[in-house]
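Design a sequence for this backbone.
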């Protein structure tokens, strides 16, 4: 199933939304829960693909264990940065 709208239709929808004085959204509005959702997400990068890439590029320099450690470290850092970026600001 495809859902396509023209630019003209999109503009009309935007005008209707503005005239109604509301904000229409599609799908679940994560709002302030986005950071919590991202924190619970298992992985942003396929671990096996990352290890394979590192092994292809660094396999002659690093051991398999070092490559695995580097991949895990990268994934943790990436996860933390994404969560930090989208976490709701803490009130003072």
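Sequence:
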């Amino acid at each position: 199933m495809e859902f396509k709208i023209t630019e003209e239709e999109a503009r009309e929808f935007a005008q209707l939304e503005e005239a109604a004085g509301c904000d229409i959204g599609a799908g679940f509005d994560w709002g302030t829960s986005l950071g919590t959702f991202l924190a619970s997400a298992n992985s942003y990068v396929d671990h096996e693909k990352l290890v394979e890439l590192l092994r292809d590029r660094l396999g002659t320099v690093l051991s398999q264990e070092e490559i695995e450690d580097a991949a895990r470290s990268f994934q943790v850092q990436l996860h933390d940065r994404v969560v930090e970026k989208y976490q709701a600001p803490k009130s003072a």
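The chain has a mean pLDDT of 79.
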